[in-house]
């Protein structure tokens, strides 16, 4: 199965949740199941229709694989917590369809938290 | 999705969608629009005049760093003719303030402005760490806010400035409006949306970022690669403001204009005459000379509470009255040094008095 290699940057204090490291390089599968439910059995999931990996999937992947503590500070209600900005190749993810943006090899995704004193 | 071109210059690639207008614009247009809006806020409110000495309240955080950068840029681009200074307050919070002060010192180099740091320790004899160990984590923000307000005025007096600017942004002000409604604080509600606050004998204080969204400030800092410190105050998770902030963030996600709308609602509030009459008139603190609604200003009251080991008893006015009924404070307690306005401001007030009486 092919994979995509993504560069991740955390800012605004978020890096504290990810081993205090601002830059990460991750490799995720290129095709992922459409459902992220954990209650399905492996066999059921293997039969499920697949889609190209998108940002929504990446967020959950980060939470499950890279996040070291306090998941509620990163993910809320199935998406990134309000107050965290997401940039895809230096552009606001709102311009790219937010969670539905399909990841390409070499993409750079930046997560910046705005929830701190000024 | 295909890359979009900027709605304003129709040339470069769009990199963000403005919350206020929904427009998709490119990096350079974003810088220009952001800076110009702050410029318009400043000129419409007629905040400054040529030759003004202005202290920028700098904490090393995102808002104050961007404020220092934008003030310097606008001062040069539009020839405001201002003398800019950085003023920083050290509350004595280990692991938070000492790190952010390093950022302010770097800012001083980067923006080439004089820097003054004033600490709670030298002014009041108490650091926030010491206060929290006595007061606990519920009322500590009250102490910090009251002490900081006075500390900024005193620092500004030492620097002899005419004006203080702080980096409060639209989100902050909207949160304050919500907080005051939630707590029924009518006195503050009437005041909190003013862009420029000035008492008769206090230094003017303005918020040029009043209409700037926090998200845009962060984007500006990110794309301009500005150096700022970004950790939550270690005591803030228990603060009341957190409730207002969570609510506001959810509102913003549903309808981004909500933030500006709340500010406009706050500006439109008018306190009924019969309620206004019950509000206290301003006096001067008989102990330190700072402005106050009571005989003793809040800072002196809080400090007395700390010195006597009864800090939690003085946080509200009602509790204070009960304490006073028990007897006067001992004479030997530490007090805040007498507050003197900068010479230029005193001269203006003195000359105004003279012309009125002649």
Describe, in plain words, how this protein is organized in 3D.
The complex is a heterodimer of chains A (118) and B (358). Chain A has helices at 42-47, 55-65, and strands at 3-11, 23-29, 31-33, 50-52, 75-76, 79-80, 84-88, 91-92, 108-113. Chain A has 118 residues and is an alpha+beta fold. In chain A, strands 2-1-9-7-8 form a 5-stranded mixed beta sheet, with no helix packed on it. In chain A, strands 3-4 form a two-stranded antiparallel ribbon. A two-stranded antiparallel sheet of chain A has the order 5-6. The longest helix of chain A has 11 residues, at 55-65. The mean pLDDT of chain A is 84. In chain B, helix 2 links the parallel strand 3 and strand 4. In chain B, helix 7 packs across helix 10 (241-254). Chains A and B meet through strand 8 and strand 9 of A and strand 1, helix 2, helix 9 and helix 10 of B.
């Amino acid at each position: 199965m092919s994979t995509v290699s993504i560069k991740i940057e955390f800012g605004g204090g978020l890096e504290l949740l990810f081993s205090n490291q601002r830059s990460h390089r991750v490799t995720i599968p290129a095709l992922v199941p459409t459902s992220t439910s954990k209650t399905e059995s492996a066999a059921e999931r293997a039969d499920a229709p697949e889609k190209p990996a998108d940002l929504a999937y990446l967020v959950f992947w980060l939470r499950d694989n890279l996040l070291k503590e306090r998941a509620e500070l990163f993910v809320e209600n199935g998406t990134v917590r309000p107050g965290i900005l997401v940039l895809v190749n230096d552009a606001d993810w709102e311009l790219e369809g937010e969670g539905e943006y399909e990841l390409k090899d070499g993409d750079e995704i930046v997560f910046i938290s705005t929830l701190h004193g000024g | 999705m295909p890359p979009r071109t900027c709605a304003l210059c129709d040339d470069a690639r769009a990199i963000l969608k403005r919350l206020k207008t929904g427009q998709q614009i490119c990096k350079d247009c974003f810088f220009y629009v952001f800076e110009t809006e702050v410029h318009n806020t400043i000129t419409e409110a007629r905040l400054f005049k040529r030759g003004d000495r202005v202290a920028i309240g700098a904490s090393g955080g995102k808002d104050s760093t961007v404020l220092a950068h934008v003030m310097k840029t606008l001062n040069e681009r539009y020839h405001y003719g201002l003398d800019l200074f950085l003023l920083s307050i050290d509350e004595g919070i280990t692991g938070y303030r000492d790190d952010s002060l390093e950022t302010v010192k770097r800012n001083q180099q980067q923006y080439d402005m004089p820097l003054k740091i004033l600490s709670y320790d030298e002014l009041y004899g108490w650091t926030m760490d010491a206060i929290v160990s006595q007061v606990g984590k519920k009322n500590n923000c009250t102490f910090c806010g009251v002490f900081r307000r006075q500390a900024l005025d005193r620092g500004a007096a030492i620097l002899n400035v005419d004006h203080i600017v702080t980096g409060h942004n639209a989100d902050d002000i909207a949160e304050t409006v919500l907080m005051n409604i939630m707590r029924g604080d009518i006195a503050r509600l009437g005041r909190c949306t003013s862009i420029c606050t000035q008492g008769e004998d206090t230094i003017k204080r303005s918020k040029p970022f009043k209409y700037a969204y926090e998200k845009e400030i962060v984007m500006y800092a990110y794309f301009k690669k500005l150096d700022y410190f970004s950790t939550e105050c270690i005591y803030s998770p228990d603060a009341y403001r957190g409730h207002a902030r969570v609510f506001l963030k959810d509102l913003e996600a549903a309808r981004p204009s909500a933030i500006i709308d709340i500010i406009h609602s706050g500006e439109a509030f008018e306190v009924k005459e019969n309620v206004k009459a019950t509000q206290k008139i301003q006096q001067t603190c008989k102990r330190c000379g700072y402005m106050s609604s009571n005989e003793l200003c809040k800072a002196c009251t809080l400090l007395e509470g700390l010195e006597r080991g009864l800090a939690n008893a003085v946080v509200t006015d009602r509790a204070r009255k009960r304490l006073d009924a028990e007897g006067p404070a001992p004479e030997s307690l530490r007090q805040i040094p007498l507050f003197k306005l900068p010479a230029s401001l005193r001269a203006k007030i003195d000359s105004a008095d003279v012309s009125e009486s002649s």
